[in-house]
Structure formats: structure tokens, C-alpha cells
Amino acid sequence: MCARRRRDVCHVMPHGERSTPAPINSDSHQPTEPHRQREQTSQARNRASSVIPLQSTTSREKMVAKEAMPLLTPHKLGQFNLSHRVVLAPLTRCRSYGSVPQPHAALYYSQRATKGGLLISEATDVSVTAKGYPETPGIWTEEQVEAWKPIVDAVHRKGAFFICQIWHVGRVSTNDYQPDGQAPISSTDKQITPEPDGRHDAEGGVVYSKPRRLQIDEIPAIVDDFRRAARNAIEAGFDGVEIHGAHGYLLEQFMKDSCNDRTDEYGGSLENRCRFAVEVIDAVIREVGAERVGIRLSPFVDYMDCYDSDPHALGAYMVQQLNKHRGFLYCHMVEPRMAIVDGRRQILHGLLPFRKAFNGTFIAAGGYDREEGNKVVADGYADLVAYGRLFLANPDLPKRFELGVPLNKYDRSTFYTQDPVVGYTDYPFHDGSTAE
Ligand SMILES: Cc1cc2nc3c(=O)[nH]c(=O)nc-3n(C[C@H](O)[C@H](O)[C@H](O)COP(=O)(O)O)c2cc1C
């Protein structure tokens, strides 16, 4: 299945970022089923056709603005009234020195904030053992919570909503990141396979350490770390949390059968493998309420040696679990892969069964541009579209989409560097300015 197609199809970079996709045979393009037409989508189209073009735009831009722009229509996300559907995807930026969020993050996030927009924060460590990358922020100490507050305030001052993505990397770590040089924890004691040249991936060059399999009686404490992180996120002022259940990190290390080799109640059957994730979801919901909790899942993605022999069943099972919680904020899923069809990158819309099954707001991510984003919102395939690399490089992405103006190119070499400005807050707006 897709999961076995590994890196020859779509090389996934740190955090599930996809490099330029390697073409796959266009014959393998799966025709999508007719998309569910949602009432709100036709409303969206009606509203879109009445968008009033800005005075300052050229006539070509005006035409673009006047055309259907489903991405720029409102959406009610639980209690939050979004004014558009262009979401900032979670993006690790490795600039939180000593695990403490820094003042420069206030500028970075507020540059990307718009009135009624939705931002998802970079993955944020739930505990001291959760870390696997340099200078990622945490949210388990009072100092970290206090440091997040002005950042969240800066986003709120712009009128945007801000969700904190909380994660534990599990075995995607090394002893160096762990307290007292201990082994990273996981569902398993299997190490991520080092690349033959001794480097795990093209960017990080990391050989991840051999993990230590969690004992059953240790699991409740890790679940509790997620609960505490969620409480702290709300305390810091975030509007909600996104549980990181994607890209081969701890939740997936339990969920996916390439990795989970346990024989206890956390391994074996699908239900058992999902038990840890379900416990985390339940604990976080009990703490802050379903209306403040979303989740990111990537059943199809094969990253960090984490893939599943039946991603359809895995995704369907998880959606069933989410549906048990009335008012669950959103389900955010990462697209399986991209294909080149007739010379153009195309998204295969493999998430459709999950979108159909999930009762609430559905966010799609992975490889979207303006055109594909508008298409999937118009078709009812997704309610919201999360943009990673394009938003990273274009702080005013929704405005650029509205105007149809060219986009800045992202600079991959500064994705994970520690400079507080370069490659972070210095991407220009469409009018050439770099400040807010
Ligand atoms: C620099 C960078 C950092 C990322 N960090 C995270 C992260 O912290 N959490 C996460 O779930 N995904 C992370 N991702 C994946 C993105 O959220 C997104 O799914 C991916 O970039 C594909 O979307 P795109 O084609 O719009 O960029 C990261 C991607 C990049 C490029």
C-alpha cells in the first residue's frame, strides 16, 4: 500500500514536510469520488461571487478577486467565527532558545495573523522528554507559559485565533535531548533505521537513538503530560490545542503497525494500538473541553519508519473516536502524497472517506496552492486548508491569494536555523514591507 511506497514516491522532510514531489505514474492517479456538497459550501460560493475588489488593485487582480474565492469566505469553527479559510499550518522553527518561546515569535506570528484568521503554532513540547529538535518551545513550565502570553496576545490583537500544537516526539530524538542522557521513550525499543550513509535524512543528518519501550504503568504519566500542556496552553491564552497525532511522533509510534510491536493492551489490534492516542484525546478533552481540542493525523504518511498496513482502517477508526466527542473542534489531516498529472502537481484527495465520516470541521493540508485550496473548499472536500511552506514565506498569504499576486519563494535552508530574523520575520509582504 501507499505506506510501503516509502521515500521513492514523496520524500517527507522533517515534520512531514514534503520536498518537491517525485513524479509518480499518472495512471496511478485515483479518481476521487464525488465530493460531499455541503450547504455551507454553496453559501460560500454565493458569498464569494459578491466579493468587492479593492480599489488599489489592477483590473486583472480585480477580476481574480471577483471570481469565486471560496478560501476567502467565512467559516464557523465551533465558537470561533473565521473570516477566511487559509490556515497557518504548524511549523517548527527552532527559535525558542532553551525551550522558552522568545519575543521574536510575537512578530513572526502576528505578521501571519489576520482578523478572523486561524493560526496553529509550531509543535510545542509537552514535557522535558518530549524534545527531539533544537530550540523547540515547551509548555510544561510556568516560565514557558508566561513567555507564550505576549505572543498569543500579539496574535489576538490582530483579531486572529491561535491554537497550540502539542507534541511528544517519542523515539524521534537522541539521548542528548533527554534528561540525564537517557534513552528516548516510545511504544517500542526499535530504533529508527539510520540511512545507509549514516545520516537519517538530507537535512538533519541525525541518527536517532535507540528508544526505550514504555512500561504499561508509565503510560498514564505521559498522557497526563498532554493534559497539563493543554491546561497550560489555555492558561497562556491560546484558543485551543491541536494534539499532534501525525508524522511518526509518539502518538503514531503507538498507532501504526510498522512501529508498534507491543503484545500488551497497547499493541496488536487496531483498537489496542489507538488506545494511547484515545487516552490522550480523552484526557485533554476532560481538561479543557472538546470545543477547544483538535487533532492532526496522517494515516497515509510514511515518515520516521512509521507506516501502517491499513491506513484506511486506521483513519476511519480514529475519526470514529473523534465523533464520540460532541463539539470536537476539528480534524486536521495531511494528504497522502502528490502526483504529477499532465505535467501539474495534483493532490489525490485520498482523505475523502475521512472527511465524509467526520462530523465537524475538516482541515486538509499538504501541497496546497491557491487553486487547489479554492477547489477543495468549493467541492466540500475540506472546510479549511492549512498552508505550511507558502505561509512561512508569505506572511500575508490570504491577502496575496485575494489579490492574485506572485508569492515569495521559501528558503529551505533557513527553515530550522536559529536566527531570530533571517528566514523568519524578514519575508516581505506583497507591498515590499517586512513589519506587521
Ligand atoms: C519548516 C517546517 C516545519 C514543520 N513543522 C511542523 C510541526 O511542527 N508540526 C506539524 O504537524 N507539521 C509540521 N510541518 C509540516 C507542515 O505543517 C505541512 O503539513 C507541510 O509543510 C506540508 O504542507 P505545505 O505543502 O503547505 O508546506 C512542518 C513543515 C515545515 C516545512
UniProtKB/TrEMBL annotation:
GO terms for biological process: jasmonic acid biosynthetic process; oxylipin biosynthetic process. Transmembrane segments: none annotated. Residues 71-408 form the NADH:flavin oxidoreductase/NADH oxidase N-terminal domain. It comes from the Eukaryota. Residues 30-39 have a biased composition (Basic and acidic residues). Gene3D superfamilies: Aldolase class I. Keywords: Fatty acid biosynthesis, Fatty acid metabolism, Flavoprotein, FMN, Lipid biosynthesis, Lipid metabolism, NADP, Oxidoreductase, Oxylipin biosynthesis. Signal peptide: none annotated. GO terms for molecular function: FMN binding; oxidoreductase activity. Its cofactor is FMN. The keyword GTP-binding does not apply. Residues 1-50, 178-205 are annotated as: Disordered. The keyword Lipid biosynthesis applies. InterPro entries: Aldolase_TIM, OxRdtase_FMN_N, Oye-like. Residues 40-50 have a biased composition (Polar residues). Belongs to the NADH:flavin oxidoreductase/NADH oxidase family. This is NADH:flavin oxidoreductase/NADH oxidase N-terminal domain-containing protein. It comes from Lolium multiflorum (Italian ryegrass).
